[in-house]
Amino acid sequence: MVRRKIKHELISNEPKRKVTFKKRKGGLLKKMNEIMTLCGVMGCAIIYSSFNNQPKIWPFPPELTRVLHRFMELPKEERERYTVDHKTFLGRLISWSSNALEREIKKNRGLKSRTNIK
Amino acid sequence: MVRRKIKHELISNEPKRKVTFKKRKGGLLKKMNEIMTLCGVMGCAIIYSSFNNQPKIWPFPPELTRVLHRFMELPKEERERYTVDHKTFLGRLISWSSNALEREIKKNRGLKSRTNIK
DNA sequence: ATGACTATCTATAATGT
DNA sequence: TACATTATAGATAGTCA
């Protein structure tokens, strides 16, 4: 975005991609920090990258540690489905929408209200 | 950041805060999209705000739906500890560091390798 | 590879409708 | 309240040390 506008696609040059990743990760986390402070909301960003073995989460609600532990405990092969095959996984990710989750949650709530389950 | 620099603290004016939140949320998600595409990593951003009843997640790995369901199924009072008392919660959030999680994961891995548990 | 620099691009606060 | 505009603050790609 600067000395020259870049195309919005995977950066093929690896060292370059790594540098960009580092810079942008910092920017992203700063933005997350700002929106939390300015707007009084809570949130977190989670990034799984092949550059780090561990997912980078910052900041994060305690609840998420559980799911992440579970993630880390998956057999290596399964983890790799999510950490290595980015192209496929990204495609899958993007095909989900947050609306799908909201529908799920509403459905569950409806069930609960009908059955009086706590 | 623009017609006038703003202080990095909670915006007290509510409608203004809401507008800022909406704009910045959009920016954040765009940034997340960009880093995923440019750098070939996967990630997600989760924002719990009092503006929306549902946490806003975008995009998200299927694994996370489970923990979020669990979150939504917490008794209302418990959920509110995380969604309403922002000030307290933010303080707590920030006091955590991603290093703490990494230590945990390493510890668990060490245990596993010593006990041969899968 | 890391860090600093900086020219340029992007995000966005304030304003207006 | 929700868009559109726009001038300025902020993020960052390329470069160099």
TrEMBL record, chains A, B:
<keyword id="KW-0804">Transcription</keyword>
<dbReference type="GO" id="GO:0000981">
    <property type="term" value="F:DNA-binding transcription factor activity, RNA polymerase II-specific"/>
</dbReference>
<dbReference type="InterPro" id="IPR002100">
    <property type="entry name" value="TF_MADSbox"/>
</dbReference>
<dbReference type="GO" id="GO:0005634">
    <property type="term" value="C:nucleus"/>
</dbReference>
<dbReference type="InterPro" id="IPR036879">
    <property type="entry name" value="TF_MADSbox_sf"/>
</dbReference>
<dbReference type="Pfam" id="PF00319">
    <property type="entry name" value="SRF-TF"/>
</dbReference>
<feature type="domain" description="MADS-box">
    <location>
        <begin position="1"/>
        <end position="50"/>
    </location>
</feature>
<keyword id="KW-0238">DNA-binding</keyword>
<keyword id="KW-0539">Nucleus</keyword>
<protein>
    <recommendedName>
        <fullName>MADS-box domain-containing protein</fullName>
    </recommendedName>
</protein>
<dbReference type="GO" id="GO:0046983">
    <property type="term" value="F:protein dimerization activity"/>
</dbReference>
<dbReference type="GO" id="GO:0000978">
    <property type="term" value="F:RNA polymerase II cis-regulatory region sequence-specific DNA binding"/>
</dbReference>
<keyword id="KW-0805">Transcription regulation</keyword>
